[in-house]
Amino acid sequence: MRQVGIVGVGHTKFGKWSGGTFTDMLCAAAVEALDDAGVKLDKNHGIDQVLVASMGSGLVNRQSGVASALVDTLNLRPATAETIENGPASGASAVKLGYMAIASGLCDAVLVVGGEMMRVISGWEGTDFVATMLHPEAEYNYGLTLPAFAGMFTRLCMEKYGVTEKDLAIVSVKNHENAMNNPVAHIRLVPNLYAITEDEDANVINPYVADPLRVYHVCPVSDGAAAVLLCAMDKAERFTKKPIKIAGIGQATDTHAVAEREVPTDLLAVRLAAQKAYKMAGLKPEDIDVAELHDAFQILEIVESEEVGFFERGQGHIAARNGETKIGGRIPINTSGGLKAKGHPLGATGVSQIVELVRQLRGEAAGRQVEGAKAGLAVNFGGFGNNVVATILTKEEE
Amino acid sequence: MRQVGIVGVGHTKFGKWSGGTFTDMLCAAAVEALDDAGVKLDKNHGIDQVLVASMGSGLVNRQSGVASALVDTLNLRPATAETIENGPASGASAVKLGYMAIASGLCDAVLVVGGEMMRVISGWEGTDFVATMLHPEAEYNYGLTLPAFAGMFTRLCMEKYGVTEKDLAIVSVKNHENAMNNPVAHIRLVPNLYAITEDEDANVINPYVADPLRVYHVCPVSDGAAAVLLCAMDKAERFTKKPIKIAGIGQATDTHAVAEREVPTDLLAVRLAAQKAYKMAGLKPEDIDVAELHDAFQILEIVESEEVGFFERGQGHIAARNGETKIGGRIPINTSGGLKAKGHPLGATGVSQIVELVRQLRGEAAGRQVEGAKAGLAVNFGGFGNNVVATILTKEEE
Fold first, then answer.
1. In chain B, at which end, N or C, are there fewer CB atoms within 10 A of the end residue's CB?
2. What is the pLDDT of residues A83-119, one digit of tens each?
3. Helices marked H in B217-297 — which ranges?
4. What are phi and psi of B200, to 5 degrees?
5. Do the beta carbons of residue A223 and residue A17 sit within 8 Å?
């Protein structure tokens, strides 16, 4: 099979987008990625296909065919264009489909742009929008939301494995610390661990969102876009940057209704997706140097770090306590700041994770660099774990 | 490159869906396609990926991750799943991406299901929903709609090429006649040509929708779903039905804003997409035995029949007048009844066109069979021609 690499990355500053329309925001990330790859937007651009990852372009922004709008705005016509939706895992799904397009031989270069403009709607509308990814008859119509599921899941993990609120806060503080060195992160402040856990005012500055989850245990609502330019490894010489190889992609679905799962504290789709990605890459968990895990809620980073094989079951929170997931630790997780501090514009997230891994493997992650990183893993989590994509990137030997 | 074929097709009755939820409707088409291929829904089903094509699952049905819901309902977990959106060309785009998944070697069998449940919203809401595919700043926000564009486009073709209202009606009547023999078509009646054009009550029974377009010159609003099971030709022996080969796929984008096009009566993306598909298939327009062209408005069938090379520019309406596009004519078009009479559930349409071609090439199109058909062409039209996919299917020699 034809090998595929990444030759360009782009990323808007996550947070409140104030630079124009939804298409403009996608464009900003795309232009940066094309520029990074040294692509000139003339007749010889060589881009065959544009894939946009978005969950809410229709639902929130009332725009269909946004990929067609983007390909035209970028002046890439007649390149083909599609929009890909897989809830909050839309980004990694689009990268996967771009990979397939190149591996098939039908395309040589595919631009993948993920984006979401969520801050045009109010808080409860945002929660409701996100909840549309739940089971429409078994969950959504009873008023269930993602924070509600995450709260229940956290409670179970607390009872079964002894995870504490402070463990969640430790993961959160680590990610906020990492975000301080990521110029595109949404939230650039580091909460004080004592103040948000043990201080007498902890309940005030870190109130419950969905018991036992507090504000500092869940991701913010962000606008943002991220872009990667994929190309066939055998066509990479025409780009400026040396490609980072996509070594493995794994994906798996789980029951759509969370209540139907055999072990409610497992994230089966994460495990299966990671296993497939390792197999395809010919790597093991211990070969990974840096990881971006989908911490829409802090408990997810902990359990995912177990499901992907970094730690034994029930040991993820202990590892976090011991600093093993910090930069400089055994396996740095969410060096970008993660969804918690970098932000989580749904369709952008899976692409943003890949952008961070590319920067780490290139050695361009100033201030948050994992020294000598050669292999990175990203986990992008759709629904409440009903559709998960794991992607492994590697730096080719010099 | 690995060859890809179609081994199963399924199709709900287009019209008003009353069989349950949106997911249920997708399921109905999917199960029929799997059954047609002889797939048993046990552990050995062998389906690697499910792609759902839909434009309005979020916007109209307020459901995200519908592909994840479908893969679970069909009990195909942990098969992967994504939703593909490219306006009314979502269906053909999903077939293309399914083709790439198999051609890449990462998948052996991919289920593609297109569907739209539009009749849950009112008439003007439906028109507005469809209009979300127009340019958000240059068109949609000024109140432009698809029928408005089609009306202006028709007027230009009338002035330039001498197309008449009666020509549109002739195309319409032909498609309604074909639909009489298609059990899954939405509208099963044949309008009387004299009554809708020359009778003194013609204005009453065939009123204007968007001058010069009348009711019988535009497609209805339909619910419906269609499904195809794609598989690698080298893995096809395990399925019941002999595969129909996907011989060529072409796609092209055009300016998103219609006003920016050089020649307003051209459909450039149709021409480019068809040229690419012919090239990939190694075929010419005269090799095609049967075609499904995207007649959301009757004028589109006429102009598309020119752009794909069946007729000279400006001659499509003459050919229709002369019966050359009827079954038995030189090149039968829209034997299924087309969007006009079979219906146009947006995301379903591109898949539905492929289903009809498979039935024709298998010799299973009872009552509307094109005898000896060996090659078929489908054109699926996104936006007002800003993103078009052409697909060529061929019957392998015995």
1. C
2. 999 999 999 999 999 999 999 999 999 999 999 999 9
3. 268-281
4. -65, -20
5. yes
Residues lower than pLDDT 70 in chain B: 398
Question: Could you tell me the end-to-end alpha-carbon distance of chain A, in angstroms, rounded to an integer?
Answer: 22
- B106 close to A (CB below 8 A): yes
Show Cβ contacts of residue A327 under 8 Å, excluding neighbours closer than 6 positions: A178, A335, A368, A369, A370
pLDDT score of B397: 76
Q: Identity (one letter) of the amino acid at A8? A: G
Across residues A17-46, what is the average pLDDT? 96
C-beta separation of B76 from B45 below 8 A? yes
A392, β-bridge pairs:
A248, A377
pLDDT at B398: 63
- The beta-carbon neighbor of B69 closest among A105, A135, A249 is A135
Residue positions counted in chain A: 398
Distance CA(A123)–CA(B203), nearest Å, equals: 51
Looking at residue B41, what is its pLDDT? Answer: 86
Residue A91 vs residues A85, A113, A289, B123: alpha-carbon distances, Å: 8, 8, 22, 34
- Using CB atoms, which residue from A65, A76, A253 is nearest to B80? A253
B36: its two tokens = 């047609």
Does B83 touch chain A if contact means CB atoms closer than 8 Å?
yes
Q: Which of B387, B146, B214, B276 is closest to A71 using CA atoms?
A: B387
CB A345 within 8 A of CB A375: no
At residue A323, the pLDDT reads 98
| Phi, psi (degrees; rounded to nearest 5) at A83 | -105, 135
Q: The whole model's pTM is what? A: 0.98
Q: How far apart are CA A338 and CA A335, in angstroms?
A: 7
Average pLDDT, stretch A191-209? 95
Examine the pLDDT at A398 and tell me if it is beyond 80. Answer: no
CA A206 to chain centre: 25
Please, which pLDDT band fits residue A57 given cuts at 50, 70 and 90?
A: very high
**DSSP letters along B137-170, please?**
TTTGGGT--HHHHHHHHHHHHHHHH---HHHHHH
Residue A279: Cβ within 10 Å count:
12
Shortest CA distance from B386: residue in chain A: A68
Encode pLDDT of A313-370 as tens digits: 999 999 999 999 999 999 999 999 999 999 999 999 999 999 999 999 999 999 999 9
CA distance B121 to B282: 44
CA neighbours within 13 Å on the CB side: how many for A53?
36
Distance in Å from the first CA to the final CA of chain B? 22
* pLDDT score at B136: 94
Q: Which residues of B touch A23 (CB under 8 A)?
A: 136
Instruction: Count CB atoms within 10 A of the CB of residue B353.
Output: 32
DSSP B17: -
CA atoms of B100 and B110, how far apart (whole Å): 10
Side chain identity at B4, as an amino acid letter?
Answer: V
What letter does residue A96 receive in the DSSP assignment?
A: H
B4 CB-near residues (< 8 Å, 6+ apart): B98, B99, B102, B103, B230, B231, B232, B233, B245, B246
Residues in chain B: 398
Amino acid at B392: I
For tokens 């990492």, the residue is: A178
Residue A396 has a pLDDT of: 84
> Which of A24, A85, A125 to mutate to test binding with chain B, by most B CBs within 10 Å of its CB?
A85
SS3 track for B194-239: HHHHCCCCHHHHCCEEECCEEHHHECCCCEEEEEEEEEEHHHHHHC
A64 vs B59: CB contact, 8 Å cut-off? yes
Tell me which residue of A249, A357, A294 sits closest to A9, measured CA to CA. A357
